[in-house]
TrEMBL record:
NCBIfam families: PRK01212.1-4, thrB. It catalyses: L-homoserine + ATP = O-phospho-L-homoserine + ADP + H(+). Residues 71-158 form the GHMP kinase N-terminal domain. Its EC number is 2.7.1.39. ATP binds at residues 99-109. The gene is thrB. This is Homoserine kinase. Pfam families: GHMP_kinases_C, GHMP_kinases_N.
Length: 316
């Protein structure tokens, strides 16, 4: 008989960068602010007498559907219980700490936290790869197609390369421990679907070749721990040329960050959050100050200096 955990547990799932510039739909990384704060959603779960008792709280809860049954965490619980062929009652609460439509893997954070919490609550009926597959399957129901570049790093941590093989969805690749990732969310939301619609239906062969070259060279440089080569290859030829002008202030910010000494700048996911990389903390701090003053345009915007979150989703 499948066991059920007693008591209450809370799960944290970190924010993530999809694409990481160079790896459109194929590369993702989890984020951890260096000040020790947790940048991501939390889900708390316990046993209920019957049904799914859902609630939501947190800074961005007001942006979620008012009817709990329309929320993805409620739907995650129904999805998970259906997979188990169970009708157990659960109480599940989402603490929504990531802005919707931010380019920080907001929906992935909620989905991963919920399914991880459910798996822990029922004492791990699914192993890691199976649970990752369920996360991708559910995320695909939301977005219309399966993309692991936010789900995988959010769940597993670090930087993940999407494989989509028959037996393995992704694999971790080495990261650069001395890199600081400055991320800035301006406070506005952009629809992923609308940002995808900006991309051309077809690309020139030369662009396809460049995409393959940059991504493969970046992965090679990561394994060789050749930071100079990795920065040189960290270029987005598929999405940024078509999305940059649709993100208010992005082009100016990229130029200003270069002038400050940042090594490279790109769009996190489909935006509007940007990321900028340096190996110098003082430069990262200057970049954060500039972004706070010039890039953040709406209440709720923020900037963080991050390292990659190597732990991924966990109970807290």
């Amino acid at each position: 008989m499948l066991k059920v955990s007693q008591g209450t547990l809370t799960v944290y799932a970190p924010a993530s960068m999809g694409n990481v510039g160079v790896g459109f739909d194929l590369l993702g990384a989890a984020l951890a602010p260096i000040d020790g704060s947790l940048l991501g959603d939390r889900v708390t779960i316990s046993t209920a007498s019957s049904g799914i008792d859902y609630s939501q709280t947190g800074e961005w809860a007001h942006k979620l559907p008012a009817d709990g049954k329309d929320n993805i965490v409620y739907q995650c619980a129904a999805f998970f219980l259906a997979k188990l062929h169970r009708q157990d009652g659960v109480t599940i609460c989402l603490e929504k700490n990531l802005p919707v439509g931010s380019g920080l893997g907001s929906s992935a954070s909620s989905v991963v936290a919920a399914l991880y919490a459910l798996n822990e609550h029922f004492e791990q009926p699914f192993d890691q790869q199976t649970l990752l597959g369920l996360m991708g399957e559910f995320e695909g129901k939301i977005s219309g197609s399966v993309h692991y570049d936010n789900v995988a790093p959010c769940y597993l941590g670090g930087m993940q390369l999407m494989l989509n093989s028959s037996h393995k969805a992704c694999a971790a690749i080495p990261s650069f421990d001395n890199w600081y990732w400055v991320v800035a969310y301006p406070g506005i939301s952009l629809s992923t679907a609308q940002m995808r619609a900006l991309l051309p239906e077809k690309y020139d062969k030369s662009v396809a070749i460049d995409f393959g070259r940059y991504l493969s060279a970046f992965v090679h440089a990561s394994y060789q721990q050749d930071a100079v080569l990795a920065i040189e290859m960290l270029k987005d030829v598929l999405a940024e040329p078509y999305r940059a002008s649709a993100i208010p202030g992005y082009t100016d910010a990229r130029a200003a960050l270069t002038a400050l000494g940042m090594l490279t700048t790109g769009i996190s996911g489909s935006g509007p959050t940007l990321f900028s990389v340096t190996d110098d903390l003082a430069t990262a701090e200057k970049a954060k100050v500039w972004l706070m003053e010039h890039y953040i345009s709406e209440q709720g915007g923020f900037a963080h200096i991050c390292k990659l979150d190597q732990l991924g989703t966990r109970c807290v």
